[in-house]
Amino acid sequence: MTFDPELQLLADSLRTTMTGASGAKLDAALADLGWLDMLDEIPDTAIPLVFRLLGETGAQAPVLNDVVLREAGAPGGGTVPLPYAGGSWVVWERTDAETSALDDDLPLRRVAAGEPVAVDAARQALGWWLVGTSRAMLSLARQHALDRVQFGRPIASFQAVRHRLAETLVAIEGAEATLQAATDQPDDLASLLAKAAAGQAALTTARHCQQVLGGIGFTAEHELHRHVKRALVLDGLFGSARELTCEAGARIRDVGSAPRLVDL
């Protein structure tokens, strides 16, 4: 993404904030930076920027609640039940109660089914979060490939490693392009496909980066496992890549043709 100087300054401020604060302090810091105002005034810029940086930094904040509430026409800053994989529902809020998510850092717990919510903007937001998480995993694997030496040379010089990293980058760039298209030309099918592409890219990234990192990638001391668990949880919210791909196929089959989503 290309930023003008003001947006670049905002991106730097957000990255610094997400890296230096966590929990309720991060929530307050994002509020002080004007997150809700940005969501109202420049959502097409704020959502990709904030959620992508959440993924890249490994931070978490309940900003998805604000996106869902805004799309429903309600003020932000509250909590809302979110559809989750397998027909269950979760609520995202900071509490001392035990979480039911794979990632203990994510404040998610199961609740009874809530009212239907608008999903297009939320799927796009989650897609950007997944892209950011994928880029974080790729960065870890790339650095490891440059640092790890076998047979007298970095493993980044081995063709098999380079192919895995290249395939990962292609998947991420493709997902980001799909998300940008859904942002530029909003459409429920475009948002669905963008979320599916981002989820599949994150799963592809996790698989390849784990292979590049080898044994160290399985350890709790390495950062990869945090991003992998985050990707699995986020992929499930508002439909996993597999579920959304099936849904898109069913829609196209029922209509009998595929719509033009992007003018090339």
TrEMBL record:
Gene3D superfamilies xref list: Butyryl-CoA Dehydrogenase, subunit A, domain 3 (1.20.140.10)
Record key words, sorted: FAD, Flavoprotein, Oxidoreductase
Name of the protein this chain belongs to: Acyl-CoA dehydrogenase
Pfam families for the chain: Acyl-CoA_dh_1
Top-level lineage group: Bacteria
UniProt KW Zinc keyword: no
Flavoprotein is among the record's keywords: yes
Domain Acyl-CoA dehydrogenase/oxidase C-terminal intervals: 120-240
Gene Ontology MF terms in the entry: acyl-CoA dehydrogenase activity
Species, as recorded: Mycobacterium asiaticum
